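Sample A.
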Amino acid sequence: MFHSIDAVAIALVLAGVGLLLASLQPLRQVIDALPAGRTRRLWYLQGALTLFFVAGYLAYAVLSWGQHRHPHSLVVPLVFFFGACFVWLNFTQAMRTALDVRRIALLEQESITDELTGVYNRRYLQRRLQEAFEAARRYGQPLTILLLDIDHFKRINDEHGHAVGDLALRHLGELCLGTVRASDVVARYGGEELLVIAPHTTAAQGAALAERLRQKVESTPLLVHTDGRPRRELRFTLSIGIASLAADDRSCGALFERADRALYRAKASGRNRVCTEVAPAAPPTDSETSRPSAMA
């Protein structure tokens, strides 16, 4: 009877060791799902503690061999076993939660990203532009938007095919994302037009950003290799319209309309250039018109 109790005790401890080792697999998936940082380091610490417990379980099994002679001596092995069960369940649940969170984040990212260009889509653009507009109005901060359009995009499609046109759009998206600040938002407005929302940016700063974008696109060719043809360079240029928030703007639509007019002027004046549309001055109030001129 003593031998059977001892065998049960050792079996419980070894089963606990097996569960602890099995829990390292979901733990590894949790760590892989996390970005580098403090949280990930804490999970690494959890793994190290788990291995420490494995060593403790094995040491107990060796040192207590043949000493489990009464049923009450199974208490410690049972605690060890159910403790290992708890660790395995905890790590498994953490793994499933981490994977679910990552899946949800991926789905959300896909729902707001334009599949072709890799920048945000128009639905997200409308929401972020409204948010940026309201924040800038509320706190009196500058806000500038840039409307970008590929020059002669129809010619690219006609001469090289729509597949190359798609590559040009993706190329433009990558160049924009690599040029703007992390706080800026790049989104596809439609067709070959992209919009950049630049919070905390004055008109002069927006013009400087637009010029950097224009020069970057002009100086960075797209390497095209399709239909078995030799690799070739495709160069294209941008026209950019800029508008900044004005005190009289009551909606983000007014801001966008000025950027659109600026883009039209850039196109009409020769393309491959940056134009800024300044908000019209507010009409003077009755008190201002009745005030004597300082020059009188």
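Sample B, a different protein:
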Amino acid sequence: MNSRLKWVIMFIGFLSSYPAVAVDSTHTPIQETERDASSTTANVLSATDRARAHLWDLSETEWRRYKQLMQGIRGSISPSTISPIEVLGIHARDDAERKRYAEVWARAMYEDAGRILAFQRAYDAAAKRLYPNVSLIDISRLPGKRDVKTPFQSGDRLLFFTRPDCPACDLLLNKLLKRIDQVSGIDIYLTDVDKGDDRAVRDWASNHQIDPDWVRSRRVTLNHDGGALDKLTQGQGKIPMVMRRRGEDVTRLPASDL
């Protein structure tokens, strides 16, 4: 074999081993270039996003953070109408940032309230000008107040059976005294007080702010029970109890009627 042929064969062998190395050495730079281009594309805001960011007076960096936050829990649990300012404020990274977004949102809400009130005033004026003799609400079609039924008549007297140191009795007494102008009077009967111990009855009345003028005019009478409750209820009465005397009839009144 002459020297020229030997040299050609050696050169072909060298080329056959070179492509594998060449492919491996050029693969990584191409992939890195593709990733850099993809990253750059992701960070570029669309014209619509830039316009919306401008309307909210936010920078492109702030708008990207807002969109990123909406991809997480905030977008899952908040209404779609939540504002970018609220999103950024809720997820503020420090107190200063939270305060800044809070002030921006407060100013926006204040200004919007002014716009709403201004439009309402303009609407009211327009309605009066265009329809001066027309009422927007037909009052005659509104439901009237229902007649409130009362268990009392002016000639009724209420019989109230109570005892000292009884919080439930005191609550019921307060309700009764508010009704005193609707009836002829209230007769109070105290149990658990020694018969003839009028001072205990007077002390009880004073502690419960019973007006002495009511007692003098007999709008309120103070009495020892003396078995009256057992007689009227055949021994079934329990303290506190309210009964209504209408003429000769005496009936029990539930507390819910007071």
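Observation for Sample B: Strands lie at 157-162, 185-190, 220-224, 241-246, 249-253.
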